[in-house]
């Protein structure tokens, strides 16, 4: 019963994330660029489960849902900053270099907070770890691939899009 609920909830969560990204960027193209972080994060979580000998469980599935949010948040930290630099008149290359330099620390802090915070749970072997360990393993593994993708690949994919995302209402107010 729980697996059936998750089979329904995961696509709904993925769709809601996409809709929120579309709402934030006002562009399907930029929402798609941003949503690329999710499959990469999932890949890291799956590899972490495989390498530790764990199977997909309800707890691990909940870890994947949490990982979706972490991955999207990391990507938004970088992409929003680079987009704002582009609006200020910087070229794509200049905005990516400056944005990468100035957003490495926030991206790392956001992702590592979740990853390092759950590392003790991922390494635990005591009573009750059956519920928390798969969740923690998924998040720790997914965070590692998310960091690498967000800092190394996402800027390249973003640069291939060319245009700026449309300004949101918040951008017009500031």
Task: Report on the architecture of this protein.
The mean pLDDT is 85. It contains 7 helices and no strands. The termini are far apart. 33% of the residues are buried. 85% of the residues lie in helices and 0% in strands. It has 174 residues and is mainly alpha-helical. It has helices at 2-25, 28-35, 37-52, 58-87, 92-123, 129-161, 169-173. α3 (37-52) packs antiparallel against α4, α4 (58-87) runs parallel beside α6 and α5 (92-123) packs antiparallel against α6 (129-161).
Write the layout of secondary structure elements.
Layout: H1 2-25, H2 28-35, H3 37-52, H4 58-87, H5 92-123, H6 129-161, H7 169-173
Helix pairs in contact: 1-2, 1-4, 2-6, 3-4, 3-6, 4-5, 4-6, 5-6
Question: What is the compact description of this entry?
Answer:
The chain has 174 residues and is an all-alpha fold.
Task: Name its key features.
174 residues; 7 helices
The poorly predicted ranges are none
Largest sheet: none
Order of helices and strands: HHHHHHH
Structural class by sheet pairing and helices:
mainly alpha
Measured distance between first and last alpha carbons: 48 Å
Q: Helical content, roughly? A: over 70%
**Number of helical elements:** 7
Can you count the beta strands?
Answer: 0
| Gyration radius over CA | 17 Å
Outline, from the CA principal axes?
globular
Percentage of β-strand residues: under 5%
Q: Average the pLDDT over all residues and give the rounded result.
A: 85
